Amino acid sequence: MFDPVEKLKEFIRHASVSTDPKAKAGMQGAQEFVSGLLRSLGFAVDVVPTDLHPLIFAQRGGQPDWPHVVIYGHYDVQPADPLNLWKTPAFEPTLVGNRLYGRGAADNKGPLMTIIAAIARLLEEDPAVPLRLTFLIEGEEEIGSPSFPKFLERYADKLRAADCVFLSDTALPNEQQVVLTCGLRGLALFDVHVTGAKGDLHSGLHGGVLRNPIQALAEILATLHTPEGRVNVPGFYDTVLDVHPWERDELRKLGADEKAYADFLGIDTFYTTPGFTPFESLRFQPTLEFNGIGGGYQGEGTKTVIPSKAFAKISCRLVPNQEPDKIKRLVMDTIRARAPKGVKIDFVDQHKGEPYVVVPPDRSNTPANQPPVLARVFRATHEAVNEVWGRPPLYLREGGSVPIIAEIKRVTGLDSVMMGLFLPEDNLHAPNESFNLDVMRKGIETTYRMFKRLARG
Amino acid sequence: MFDPVEKLKEFIRHASVSTDPKAKAGMQGAQEFVSGLLRSLGFAVDVVPTDLHPLIFAQRGGQPDWPHVVIYGHYDVQPADPLNLWKTPAFEPTLVGNRLYGRGAADNKGPLMTIIAAIARLLEEDPAVPLRLTFLIEGEEEIGSPSFPKFLERYADKLRAADCVFLSDTALPNEQQVVLTCGLRGLALFDVHVTGAKGDLHSGLHGGVLRNPIQALAEILATLHTPEGRVNVPGFYDTVLDVHPWERDELRKLGADEKAYADFLGIDTFYTTPGFTPFESLRFQPTLEFNGIGGGYQGEGTKTVIPSKAFAKISCRLVPNQEPDKIKRLVMDTIRARAPKGVKIDFVDQHKGEPYVVVPPDRSNTPANQPPVLARVFRATHEAVNEVWGRPPLYLREGGSVPIIAEIKRVTGLDSVMMGLFLPEDNLHAPNESFNLDVMRKGIETTYRMFKRLARG
Predict the structure, then answer these.
(1) Does the residue A246 lie in any domain?
(2) CA gyration radius for chain A?
(3) What value of ipTM does the predicted structure carry?
(4) Which of A65, A122, B206, B450 gives B384 a disulfide partner, CB atoms 3.0 to 4.6 angstroms apart?
């Protein structure tokens, strides 16, 4: 008998911190644990080597007319630092009430184990269930999936044969309401460097004759938003898709409370794209943010220097159909055009990610040509959620980014059905991460029913 | 026989780095060396203890109608780091051509020894020379003279009995031209801190609803200058004294080359107060500079965070008659008034210094009530420079700040005659500091002749 909680505990004990070269044993342990588990369920497991951490590619074949679902997940976790803030050992799973504590409990070991447990139950009940299933479990999600694109290119043909992707690596707003995530923002990141004089200068001996690069940088950055809250870069919004009325309706059903959100953030005023509520702005609108700024003397006391250099780290969150490369070019061109005389502008390119959107079926403007199995997975998930949680899921775009979802779509054509299972209080990427075992139990039941419905046709 | 170069070598060997707690022996050695030297010249030396490094207060008394000149200098030096950039050992004085290398050679051990050597020669020739002299040599100049104000208050009565101050801790523009510094800029320094949300936020999950404090800071800083180069703070220039035409004339005689200066700085465009050349702007106009800025993630790569905080370090160089406290208040009030909604503004006050100006005699608008001895020291210095260097000195204000000069004026009423002796190529505060011994020789001759003239009446 498959005990999901015991399996999850075992999974958590492998300290699979992908960014830490000293965590090799934990990475290998977690990989072998998942591979072994899938093998024990009858999957043909292929451990795909990469330049860093191997991917697990595990298949259960079948008849060509059976639905073929790819299940995505990751076996790596964030570092547990700062360790002194953990109330229980980070890699010793600890049950407190209905919560299991440990690094990775919610991101992504718990949600992944939820799906595996549902599949285990399904196959135990009916070993001949008419479903083709492919697990795709990576070990580099927490470090930006550097090996994923190469893997995707190599396995593209095998993946194209599938119908869609199913995963759980997004959030629930609360314990009562399941969300199926229908969109993710993209990313465009780069640094801007401003150089003035060729070296740092004494602000007494040379102050008053040249433009300080911190001043120039501030003057440039200050032009990039309107006072009302739009990004002030010509062309920035040109390709942004209109939000469908059903999306706004769906968001309204969430019933989020602006006052409570402002209190949570600790602010007294929102600053959002005009025409959008804060919650709409988060999910439907692109942003241009300054993630960091630096220049000159930052220590205690004073140093009367005119620095030679200053820089800022810029990131844009993008929405469909903005293209990251085009947005980078627009913002860089704008910065160059607005730079005052007397300073030099340089850019350091960073990474990027395409935005993603999938329109669920049964929405007024669902494309008629949506692949039938994708539509069936959406419907089966909808019904299963409705039965298990007593209310239908909401279909919402999310403000965050999972760049591989758009990458899978770009390379293989496959869309993703994303069922959220972690809660805001689960402390992802923070000390005292935990997973709610009531949510896990309901998640297993939901996933089990979803696949059963899908198999039934 | 007093050998100034040998004495200077001995002085340099004491590694008197006032900021370095490990340099206690060097500090004490330098103090005892100077005290001993002055004692050997017949001065009554008082080593005045402070909370940190003692001051040397050394007096040669005389008749009440003899001129009484206070000679200021400092026996401490900057740290020698980075040591690996020194071509000769920093605290082992090394003669190369006509230059003596070593930390402190030019700042301030060489110029101070120049004055002491001139006094030694004077007293050797005429032990009864009718001059009262007070040396005031501190050990904390390189760390902002923290003990000086307390000392000044305690010794104010003794100092008020003097006629003026004479010192050499400013620059020569080149080996041919002596400058008597007639003004110094003041300083007003503080930090501004901007706070947005109560903690750092994920830029995906929360981007698009609040004003990033880096953005707010940039928007505030960008308002503080006009595109033309004036400080854009209401009232900032209200009390600035007009520049006398003779001051502009004097500066023109310096014949500085704008193209060469731009090349030295490595810039292609000056950005100065409208109506002033770069050289005038430096010496006659106030500034508002950003000495540092920081916020959010500044490391390699990216971190998609909306930081909770950002800050900037601001310093104003002030000219007569701007008051540091009033200017701080104006700038802080302006920042508060221009801060966008949704962020909190806090200030951390730093130090300040009054601007200083002294009008030499024989200028069209010299106040008629200038103390006669001050006027005589100016005239004597003028004549001595003219004889020894073959051309008269220039009377120029300087862009830098020596806050104790204004502080001495404020507390004791004494003005200062500042004769520059270090050259731009002397590498003050940098590796391979040196002092030009030809300048030293001419400086001794000049100072000797100045005091001799002064004594003659």
Answers:
(1) no
(2) 24
(3) 0.90
(4) B450
